[in-house]
């Protein structure tokens, strides 16, 4: 039996909260103790995404990201009436997650905020590219025979971990407006926050366009209907 919208939204709130607790929580732990290192923080993001996909994927699709939800809608694989409720649930979950992280953070912590290492425009380009890569992988491994299964979750989580590993020192490798806005809100660190909304949305929509080009004509026609 299909889940109700309320159940799906609860899964998105819970999943996005857990993503922030363990993802940005790892960044805060490393900030305070220097016990993890950048590679371990990137691994934490990848691991928590894998666990969430495996546990919540059949409940809500486990988007955890307004840009991903928007991308699925643009690809014709998600109902338009659910886009705003999903995004609201993700933002609420992220805020709850950051709130819990703040309880263990030292005063003055940025709570794992995403900040550009160099210029804003360079960071915008990087965030667009990273989200493009993530969304393209998501679209390609959640279609046809690969739609359900551990390998799809592994591919998506590995992409998150890889991009966090490489892009993290440059932009924080957000790829997710909810992931960036909640630490900014609770820490008060709003430096260039807009690029962590514009970049992921642009990257997700670009991935949808490229995915359509890569699809066989019969499948593309089916998705368009």
UniProtKB/TrEMBL annotation:
Extract one GO molecular function annotation from the record: channel activity
**Top-level taxon in the UniProt lineage:** Bacteria
Question: Which PROSITE patterns does this one have?
Answer: MIP (PS00221)
Q: Which UniProt keywords apply?
A: Membrane, Transmembrane, Transmembrane helix, Transport
Pfam families recorded: MIP
What Gene Ontology cellular-component terms does the record carry?
A: membrane
Which compartment or compartments is the protein found in?
Membrane
Query: What family is reported?
Result: Belongs to the MIP/aquaporin (TC 1.A.8) family.
Name this protein carries in UniProt: Aquaporin
What species was this sequence derived from? Hymenobacter properus
Classification lineage: Bacteria, Pseudomonadati, Bacteroidota, Cytophagia, Cytophagales
């Amino acid at each position: 039996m299909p889940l109700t919208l309320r159940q799906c939204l609860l899964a998105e709130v819970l999943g996005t909260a857990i993503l922030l607790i363990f993802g940005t929580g790892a960044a805060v732990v490393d900030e305070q103790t220097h016990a993890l290192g950048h590679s371990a923080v990137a691994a934490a993001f990848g691991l928590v995404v894998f666990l969430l996909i495996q546990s919540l994927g059949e409940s809500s699709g486990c988007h955890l990201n307004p840009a991903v939800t928007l991308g699925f809608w643009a690809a014709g694989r998600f109902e338009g009436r659910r886009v705003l409720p999903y995004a609201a649930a993700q933002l609420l979950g992220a805020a709850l997650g950051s709130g819990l992280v703040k309880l263990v953070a030292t005063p003055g912590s940025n709570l794992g905020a995403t900040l550009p290492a160099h210029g804003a425009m360079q960071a915008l380009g990087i965030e667009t590219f990273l989200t493009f890569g993530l969304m393209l992988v998501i679209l390609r491994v959640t279609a046809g025979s690969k739609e359900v299964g551990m390998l799809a979750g592994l591919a998506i989580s590995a992409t998150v971990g890889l991009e966090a590993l490489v892009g993290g020192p440059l932009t924080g490798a957000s790829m997710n407006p909810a992931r960036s806005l909640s630490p900014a809100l609770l820490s008060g660190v709003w430096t260039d926050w807009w690029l962590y909304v514009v970049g992921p949305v642009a990257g997700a929509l670009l991935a949808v366009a490229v995915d359509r080009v890569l699809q066989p004509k019969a499948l593309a026609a089916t998705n368009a209907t």
